[in-house]
Amino acid sequence: MSILIATLWKDVDMFHLIKVQGESMSPSLCSGDFVFTSRWYKKLNTGHLVVVDHALYGYIVKKILHIAPDGQLWLGGESNKSLQSERIGWVSSRRVVGKVIGRICAP
After folding, report:
1. Cβ–Cβ < 8 Å for 29, 19
2. H helices present in 1-107, as ranges
3. What's the rounded Cα separation, in Å, for the pair 62 and 5?
4. Residue 6, φ and ψ in degrees, nearest 5
5. For the residues of 88-99, what is the DSSP string, one character each?
6. Strand partners, 60
7. What's the confidence (pLDDT) of residue 15?
8. How many Cα atoms are found within 13 Å in the side-chain-facing hemisphere of 100?
9. pLDDT tens across 5-21, in order?
10. pTM for this one?
11. Which pLDDT belongs to residue 3?
């Protein structure tokens, strides 16, 4: 099992620069890429990439696949190496570290 783990590299209040580890979000994100995240967003929507602090898996980067009426998020990866959504389970939007707003590709 391969999961995508994001490491918090630098924290500047509302913005984070996070290094991606693993291939579960490939081809959108590759291991070694950096993503900028922001907590400064009005609303999360299906398809947004987010970093969450998961109670079991720690920091993970995933795509929002579904949003329940109560705001819970159903997340998933983009490759077959990704942790299955059923294992992640519903995640509270309060656990979102930030929405991905940019990417720096690994060399």
Report:
1. no
2. 85-88
3. 10
4. -100, 135
5. H-EE-GGGEEEE
6. 52
7. 82
8. 24
9. 555 555 556 788 888 98
10. 0.84
11. 45
